[in-house]
Amino acid sequence: MTQLSTLEPAVGSLLVADPFMQDPHFERSVILICKHDDEGTFGLVLNNRTDFNLSNALPNPEFEDFELFSGGPVLPEGLSLLHRIDSPDVGGLPVVPGVFCGGEIDFILDLVQRGLVDWKELKFFFGYSGWEPGQLDREMKENSWTVHQNYNPDLLFLLEEEDLWKQTLISMGPKYAHVAKFPKSPNWN
């Protein structure tokens, strides 16, 4: 089988799901790779919104405006975040210029409560997506994913699930833009 994506996954890459992927955790998903090394890969599904908000995880009515996304099926009770706060006090791993994964959640929420950080600069997740060493390589060879590396970081904070998948494909150029119009099932043509 010919591998469609010629790019290799790396920290900061987006994994864009094949349009016909049937796995409910990853159907039409866009995943940001936050860690990729010899021990495996850690990523967050950017476009799988849940029915929960941050106040469900951290009881505080002030957090009801923070939507929670499902970062993936691994450790679903764990809380992760992406943010745009470039400060050593906040922490987090840099994934692309100006965007960080993880950090001091309590410190960040304190900054939000004091009006020093806009909540639109944050995205919270339950769980994450993980691959053992070699697993993602196998899935790439099966064409389950396409890698995108040259994108506007604003895509990471887009809240509309289906729009994110489509916008990511369109931003990859004409070779991929037509895929954004594919139905979820090839039988629907």
Automatic annotation (TrEMBL):
Pfam families, alphabetized: DUF179
Database matches in SUPFAM superfamilies: VC0467-like
Superkingdom as given in the UniProt entry: Bacteria
InterPro entries to which the protein is assigned, alphabetical: AlgH-like
The protein's name in its UniProt record: YqgE/AlgH family protein
Protein's organism: Candidatus Sphingobacterium stercoripullorum
